Predict the 3D structure of the following.
Amino acid sequence: MSYNICEYKNCERGKWKEDKEHCIFHSKKCKEKKEEFKNQILKEFKEQQNDLNKETISLEGFIFPEFDFLSNEKISKPISFSNAEFYKKVDLKGTTFCNEVDFSYVKFFDGINCRETNFLKEVSFPWAKFSGTAFFFRHKIF
């Protein structure tokens, strides 16, 4: 095991400079990482979305200080948020998910907005924990 690799299971990213154990995505230091995380998560998402060798976008176990980068996006691949933690309201307004979406074991500390969100395949929330509101209005599940 390398001392410079994130300690989250199966993560091969390097440790973040502000965390002795985890990469920026798995670090619980939300306040410290907020600005840098915004730039890095968008880059990470786009890389995974465009990687032809990667079947599923994996944001598993990510700790999100904020979540607003997918509003009004079209996501073609399956995506997994399994074991992720969202500290601010998740805004998926107008987002279209063309494939499966996995929210298993996710913690929503400030709710989720799925207004006008399209789930074209299965979406699942097994064992997810919600604090705040879960808003599903004019959403479509096909």
Remarks:
- Helices lie at 30-50.
